[in-house]
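Look over this entry.
=====
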Amino acid sequence: MHLSRRTFLTASAALIAVPKRALAAPFVLRAEPVTAQILPPGDGTTQMLGFNGSTPGPELRFQQGDTVDLRFENTIGEGSAIHWHGIRIDNAMDGVPYLTQPLVEDGKGFDYRFALPDAGTYWYHSHNRSWEQVARGLYGPLIVEERNPPEVDHDITVMVDDWRIERSGEVIKDFGNRHDFSHAGRLGTFAKVIPSVRTVRRGDRVRLRLINVATARVFPLEISGIAGKIVALDGMSLAETQEIQAIMLAPAQRMDIIADVSDMIKFAFPTRQEPYEMGEIAVEGENPNPRGDDIANLPNARIARPAAEPTKLLNLTLQGGAMGGQHEGDDIWSLNGVSGLQDAPWQRFALGETVRIRITNDTAFPHGIHLHGHHFHEVAPDGSLGPFRDTTLLHRQQTRDIICVFDNPGRWLLHCHMLGHQARGMKTWVKVG
C-alpha cells in the first residue's frame, strides 16, 4: 500500500505530560505492550509497544540544570535500552547496549541519572533493535525549558511519525526485510502529527516543538495558520531567528517555531499534486490581548567555540545500498568501507579537540547522520558556521562539512538515523579523552 490522500491520517492524539520537576525520584519508565489508537477514533486499534501505557511515551518536562533520575523497567519480551537523543550526557547514561551499558533484558531494569545542561527539544527512544522497537512505538519527548523561557500562550510538542499498518490498524509485520534495509528504510503506509495541545485561540502565541520520530521517512512539512520564526534546531537555539520557509526534517531532527495564530493550524505533506493532510490544531475563540512584540532569539546555548583551525580534517564516506555500487564493507551499508562497530574506534580525539569532517553521501538514498553526546556546526557553502545540530541530513550524492568540538569524554556512537541503515552497517564510534 502506498501513501495516498486516503491513507494519510488527519487525526491527532494528545501526549501524556509529566509536569516538570514533579517526577518521583526515581520515576519509573516502563516499556511494555500497549494498544494504540493510531487510526482516527472509531477505526481499528493497533498493538504496539510504548512506555507507561502509551505511545508516544509520557512527555518528560524539566528545566535547564535539573537532574533526571529514573528507573527503566523492560517488560516487552526482549532486550532494550533507552537513548536520550540530543542530550550532552554522561557517557555511561547514553543508552547504547554493548558500547555504554549492558543490554537490559526482559524483566530487568536500569537506573538512569544525568544532568540536563542545555535547554531545548529532545526525545528518548529504544536503542536496541531500534529499527523495529522504535517503529513499534518505543519513544517519547523530553523537553528542557529555559530558566527564563519565552512568553507564549501554549508550548506544544508535535511528534511527526509514520506507521506501516493495514486499514484495519494491524501492524504489517515485515520488519527487517532486505528491501527496506537496502533502500530508503521502513516507510509507513499511514502518517500523522501528534500535538500535545488540541485547541488554541486566534491571536495566541505558540511554541511548536517539532520532532521527527520516524525510523526512515524524511518529512517535508507545510504549516498554515501561523506567522512566526524558527528559533531552534535539534534543541539548540539559533544565533538569529529564521523565516519559516520550506521545512525538511530527517529522522531524529527537531525544530522549534514561535508564531502567532491567525487560523486553524494545519500540517501538510507537500507533493506534486495536492498536499496530504497530516493533522491540525483547532482554533476556538479569540485571544483578547494578543502579543504585538517581535519574536526574539532564544538565550544563547552554552557551547564550546571551535578553534580557529581544526586539529584534524577527516573524510567520512557513506557507501552501499541498492544501486550504490561496490564497497569494501561486509554488510549492506558501510562508512569508509567498514560495516558496523569494530573493536577499535574509527577515530580518537583529545578532550576539547576541534575536528572538521567532510561527509560524502556516495549512495542513492538520503541519510541522517547522528553523533551521540555532542552537537556540531554544519558548514555553510560560503564557509561560515551554520546551525548547531546533532543530526545532519545528506541527500543522495551530497557532500557537507561539519565542525565539532569533542568536549564530552567517552565512547560515542556515530550512525545513520535511518534505523534500518544503522542496523545493516552504517555506524561507527569515536573515543573522546
